Amino acid sequence: MPGHTEGSGFTLADGMYIPDVFIRTIIVILLFYVATSFLLTLIRMLLNHRLKSKMILMGITSDEAEKMLKIGAENKNHAVKWFLLLFSAGIGFAVISSFPFGWLSVAVVAFSLSLGYAGYYIYLKKRKDTL
């Protein structure tokens, strides 16, 4: 195919060519989305905690403040999920840094992300058992 060199992208089994720049752009967008979602969740939790503390100082009971803010295990679980996913993705990218980018690299990152999800499942199961 004119206009591209060998190794600058992927050619699928049906002959369709996917440029390397396109793949890298999608990966950067996905990583940006995951990182910003994690940060926004942490900021939301921090601000809800500060607001709850101020409501308690104003005389509202802790249970009423929690009901008003709908603070619960869901926000904490969400933050733990994003932490585990980012951590496992980071480990996966650290492992593939010595490999050339290819299908093996994608498999390693997918496997590390699946381990992150498995860790999140175990965390939820243990948390459910303690409640």
- The figure for the number of domains is 1
Task: Report the structural category.
Answer: mainly alpha
Average pLDDT metric:
79
Q: Determine Rg (CA atoms, Å).
A: 21 Å
What's the arrangement of strands in the largest beta sheet?
1-2
What sequence of helices (H) and strands (E) makes up the elements?
Answer: EEHHHH
Instruction: Please tally the helical runs, counting DSSP H or I stretches of 4 or more residues.
Output: 4
Apparent shape: elongated
Q: Strand share of the residues? A: under 5%
Distance between the termini: 60 Å
Instruction: Report the sheet with the most strands, covering strand number, pairing sense and barrel closure.
Output: 2 strands, antiparallel
How many E-type strands?
2
Instruction: Give the proportion of residues in helices.
Output: over 70%
pLDDT < 50 runs, ≥5 residues: none
Question: Which helices and strands occur, and which strands form pairs?
Answer:
Layout: E1 9-11, E2 17-19, H1 20-57, H2 62-69, H3 73-96, H4 103-130
Antiparallel strand pairs: 1-2
Helix pairs in contact: 1-2, 1-3, 3-4
Organism: Pedobacter zeae
Protein name: DUF3784 domain-containing protein
Transmembrane segments: 21-47, 79-96, 102-123
